[in-house]
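Z., the sequence and structure:
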Amino acid sequence: MPAASADRRTGLAWAFAAALGSAGFVIPWKLANEAGDPAHSVLLLLGGAALANSLLVLGQRLAAGSLRASGLRADLGVAALLAAFTLFGNVASARAIAVLSPALLNVLLRAEVLLVAVFAWAMLGERVDRRFWLGAGIALVGLLVIQGHPAEIATRAFLTSGAGLAIGAAACFSMLAVVTRRFIHAIDPVVVNALRLWMAVALWFPFYEAPRLDALPREQVLYAGLAAVLGPFASRLCLMLSARHLAARVTTLASLTAPAMTLGLAWLLLSDWPKPNELIGGAILVAGIAIPLLGRRRRPDPPIPGDEIRSAAGDQSMR
């Protein structure tokens, strides 16, 4: 029992470290998009994350004593599909953070937890219980409160609003988890994670004009690089380490502390504080997300390969 308790504490420590990384990510991410073109911020973010993850893969291979990669064809195919969702999710996130507070963006991105379940139910035939739909309904109420004008939620204007863009980003990120879940037994998740980031970088260029490096604001490069390290790299790595010790459900619950951490960091560093309806709506949304997680069976279920990716509340992840 003491060993199991210590193992659980270790897992929780990594899970909260991942939440802190997610909270820290949105601060420089907002500053980067204020300093320059959001499209350029996306390119810098993806490039920095791709480089960091590639170095991690190389280090793992060297530690294992082999640089050979098996099943590369499957890895490339899945990574190409994930790259599209990665690019569009980050573009939506960059546009959303321009008009939203960091804490509110982090709250809205938590909707990924519910969207993963919905997409897995629709595409993979996975079962969802009544408690899930109750939580989803409560989360929708929270979204209505956040929006402030409930009538706009069903209009085209919502799709281009900050909240609509954030939900769109969460939908793209949730598809990363669903696609990964579909092919998890045929791929190497760590290799695919690095490949899909480089492919997302390549996919960026057909849509946007390449910037001159000397024309990029120094602040934008600095903040986007910091965001890449904190979010797609450090937060993701901590989630993977947490998944070695905890079931995905517990890791996901711990990730719901990220918006509260962001609230404090944004107030301290940016003097940013959300509107009252955004605070209330955000709390309702997080409560709705937590309900189906709390309702699952209490008997511990050990993590299985791939849970570190499937529990990406975010995370930011797979971003």
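Confidence is low (pLDDT under 50) at residues 298-317. The two ends are 36 Å apart (CA to CA).

Let me know what you think.
H.
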